[in-house]
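Example 179.
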Amino acid sequence: MSAKYKIENSILELFNGDITVQDTEAIVNAANKQLSPGGGVSGAIHRAAGSQLWEECKKLGGCNTGKAKLTSGYNLGAKYVLHTVGPVYSGSISDSEYLKDCYKNCLLLASQNKIKSISFPSISTGVFGYPIKEASIVALKTIINFLKEHQEIELVQMVLFTEDTYNTYKSSLEKILKD
Ligand code: AR6
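Predicted structure in complex with AR6:
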């Protein structure tokens, strides 16, 4: 399942599937502060990229919540991995600020490195417990606002692992575009 939406001159695509097999120039990893492989989408990305990814991550000195770091993609189809650390959901207002920073800092880093296509997973909505509907609104509004100001990014894909997550993002996006 997938759906494409035009935002100014760029495409925002919702896709139901596995981020490790996407062939956008960069894929985003929902990492931990140590940038160690861990579980969830991060474990899957490290397994698919191979052990060289962890070797490079070890040298980066970790990553704070809301920030982003760039590595090579090694055995992945994607040339780069952008690692960002989402907030652990706490119910406080700072959660959405940190989540917004994750998307914004990845897109900025992509733009600075002339990356034109990028895939995101649904950051923080697994182990870190962020409710999917709330997270989808933050993610999509941040991406849309960025694309309106940065037309150098041609394609942003949100890769949603489950059908439920895909449907939640789709209804949030249609509501945002209608308002
Ligand atoms: N492709 C796309 N999305 C996926 C995939 C995949 N292959 N696998 C899982 N997801 P999570 P977080 C979805 O827990 O909440 C790790 O251990 C999943 O369904 O991976 O940010 C790190 O090391 C969910 O919707 O990330 C950190 O310690 C989304 O990806 C911690 O988990 C995010 O789930 C980060 O937690």
